[in-house]
Design a protein that fits this description.
This protein has helices spanning 46-53, 78-82, 99-109, 114-127, 143-155, 173-188, 200-206, 224-228, 233-241; strands at residues 8-17, 20-30, 35-39, 61-66, 69-70, 84-87, 161-165, 192-197, 209-214, 217-223. With 255 residues, it is α/β, with parallel strands linked by helices. Keywords: Antibiotic resistance, ATP-binding, Nucleotide-binding, Transport. Residues 8-240 form the ABC transporter domain.
Length: 255
């Protein structure tokens, strides 16, 4: 019997910006069916790594594979991208389109049949509680609504691997609960989720696999229990990255 193919495999990905090494020859494997959390402090390289892994940013070297299909070179990555849904950080969407119009055009660009696009768009708007905003322009959406329509765009074509960069950032509790329910259903159907975050409590609650990234390097990766050992994830993370509380407070508040 052949070994299972990883949902996402990253091999020696590297990216520099001038003299700064943002991602330093990272190797990483995400098993199928995992809820994988990529954690690290601000500036650790999480967004840069994921952007290369999904084809949004050209690496200096290395490659990534989605369900065994290579992302690079882009010209031959159609199979990988068909299996991949992406919710990028700092999502920029056309502000003069409604959510339904955005999904319609994205579906047609992917070569989906118009009837399928319409049916899935209607279902996504209902499930993500966006039906009341059907005629609202995306430029007038709240942050939570933008996250939800971005998630709808990532799931429209039925991917098996979802990469979400900070999907819960700046999202209100109601919208967060909706996003969580969608991700749970995606996992239950056999999908794989890779999520970046710097909120340890959220990752510890949701994820079963974790990688800790700092200064562009993976410090530790594995199951949640392997990474945190006998500690909380917050404690393990602080120990790995050498985080220490400030030695003193602000002078003008000290008695």
């Amino acid at each position: 019997m052949s070994a299972a193919v990883d949902a996402l495999r990253i091999d020696e990905l590297r990216k520099t910006f001038g003299d700064t090494v943002a991602v330093d020859d990272v190797d990483l494997s995400v098993p199928q069916g995992a809820f994988f959390g990529l954690v690290g402090p601000n500036g650790a390289g999480k967004t840069t790594l994921l952007s290369m892994a999904v084809g949004l940013l050209t690496p200096d070297r290395g490659n990534a594979w989605v369900s065994g299909a290579a992302i690079w070179p882009v010209a031959g990555s159609e199979q990988a991208k068909a299996a991949l849904g992406v919710l990028p950080s700092g999502l920029a969407m056309p502000p003069r389109l409604t959510g339904a119009e955005l999904l319609h055009y994205l579906g047609l660009l992917r070569g989906m049949r118009a009837a399928v696009v319409k049916a899935r768009t209607d279902e996504l708007l209902d499930v993500l509680d966006l039906r009341a905003a059907e005629r609202t322009l995306i430029g007038d959406y709240s942050t939570g609504m933008q996250k939800k329509i971005g998630l709808a765009a990532a799931l429209l074509h039925g991917p098996r691997v979802l990469v979400a960069d900070e999907p819960f950032e700046a999202v209100d509790p109601v919208s967060a609960a909706v996003v969580r329910a969608i991700l749970d259903g995606f996992l239950a159907a056999g999908g794989t989720v890779i999520m970046s975050s710097h909120v340890m409590a959220l990752v510890e609650q949701l994820c079963d696999h974790v990688a800790v990234l700092d200064h562009g390097r993976v410090l530790r990766a594995g199951t949640l229990d392997q990474v945190r050992a006998e500690l909380t994830l917050q404690e393990a993370f602080a120990a790995l990255v050498g985080a220490k509380p400030p030695s003193r407070g602000l002078s003008w508040y000290e008695s």
